[in-house]
Amino acid sequence: MASAVLKVAVAGLSRCSRLTLLRTHSTKAPLHQGLPGSLWKLGRLNHIAIAVPDMEKATALYRDVLGATVSGQVPLPEHGVYTVFVELGNTKLELLHPLGEKSPIAGFLQKNKSGGMHHICIEVDNITAAIADLKAKNIRTLSAEPRIGAHGKPVMFLHPKDCDGVLVELEEA
């Protein structure tokens, strides 16, 4: 499952940013990817977000069955979600549950009753430059300006139709 999710994440990333990423096993490979002379660079995968119809059940699965460390549930009314973060060795999972009637997660769960992968979040070193560059390359964003995300940092969502069907969240590192 993890390798399938990673393949989806990399597929969405490569088309969305219009970069060709080569996966190597060299420890000398740079951690950031970017175009030469670019004003911004991609960083690491921050998290994979999963929409869940039952937050308590999902949290128990990762904490009690799989033995992961999980955060407490945090309401984010400005985003219309409750979040729980599942800590993994190299990234995190973000469990999302609707908060309020206008929650984007409520709409997602109406179409996907069992829940499922909602988005991937990739760090960037300069979100303002990244947004300007991506808009110049006709990549649509879901809001006019970045908002503060669950980690207290500026975030921007890229339109899934421009990213091979993957909702991509950029977060300033």
Helices and strands in order, then pairings?
Layout: H1 2-16, E1 42-51, H2 55-65, E2 69-70, E3 74-76, E4 81-87, E5 92-98, H3 104-111, E6 116-124, H4 127-136, E7 147-148, E8 154-158, E9 168-172
Parallel strand pairs: 1-5, 6-9
Antiparallel strand pairs: 1-6, 2-4, 3-4, 4-5, 7-8, 8-9
Number of strands: 9
* Ends distance: 27 Å
Q: How large is the count of helical segments? A: 4
Q: How would you sum up the major sheet?
A: 9 strands, mixed
Query: Unreliable segments (pLDDT under 50, ≥5 consecutive)?
Result: 1-30
Order of helices and strands: HEHEEEEHEHEEE
Helix content: 25-40%
Alpha-beta classification: alpha+beta
Mean pLDDT: 85
- Backbone CA Rg: 16 Å
Shape: globular
Strand content: 25-35%
Folded structure, characterized:
The chain is of the alpha+beta class and 173 residues long. The chain has four helices and nine strands, in the order H-E-H-E-E-E-E-H-E-H-E-E-E. Strands 1, 2, 3, 4, 5, 6, 7, 8 and 9 form a nine-stranded mixed beta sheet that branches. It is globular and about 45 Å long. The two termini are 27 Å apart. The N terminus is likely disordered.
